[in-house]
Write a structure and sequence with these properties.
Strand 3 (about 70-75), helix 4 and strand 4 (about 100-105) form a beta-alpha-beta unit. The longest helix has 16 residues, at about 85-100. The protein is α+β, with helices and mostly antiparallel strands and about 140 residues long. The chain starts with a helix and ends in a 9-residue tail after the last helix. It has helices at about 5-15, 20-30, 35-45, 85-100, 110-115, 115-130; strands spanning about 50-55, 60-65, 70-75, 100-105. The chain folds into two domains: about 1-30, no CATH class; about 35-135, 3-Layer(aba) Sandwich (Endonuclease, Chain A), CATH 3.40.960.10. The chain has a four-stranded mixed β-sheet with strand order 1-2-3-4, sandwiched between helices. It is globular and about 45 Å long.
């Protein structure tokens, strides 16, 4: 990466990214909240293999951790007040669950004001969920 590319990436996108990652991120930023991007990079910094705006051809997860089969949705305030949004979220959770994915819902405010606790909890959740003896069977 050249100095110009690094400068652009840090000053425009807030993170040092290679040109192809810059293109990918720019295309996703139009549909992604600031808190989702913030959480995405915090998890990446912890070494967690995360994907931003993962599309499974039915729905799109804000953040996906494919190896753990975990989707993370950074909830917007209107989800709590709008019954249509709430029902759509419930349906997305159901369809992801059918495919073996668990969905964590993280409130915007938690990422904005208490990001360390949010990241710590997600790390703890992943440690527990990735241990075979911790899975519950119906």
């Amino acid at each position: 990466m050249t100095g110009t590319e690094l400068y652009y990436s840090v000053n425009r996108l807030g993170h040092p990214l290679c040109p192809s990652c810059q293109q990918e991120l720019k295309s996703k930023l139009e549909h992604t909240s600031r808190e989702t991007v913030k959480l995405y990079f915090l998890l990446k910094q912890k070494g967690i293999a995360v994907e931003l705006e993962k599309d499974d051809h039915y729905t799109t997860a804000d953040i996906s951790i494919v190896s753990a089969k975990v989707n993370i949705e950074v909830s917007r305030p209107q989800t709590n007040y709008n019954r249509c949004e709430a029902l759509a979220d419930l349906k997305r959770t159901y369809y992801s669950f059918e495919k073996g994915y668990y969905t964590l819902r993280i409130p915007n405010a938690l990422v904005a004001y208490d990001q360390d606790d949010a990241v710590s909890f997600i790390e703890e959740f992943l440690q527990v969920s990735c241990q075979p003896q911790s899975y519950y069977h119906c």
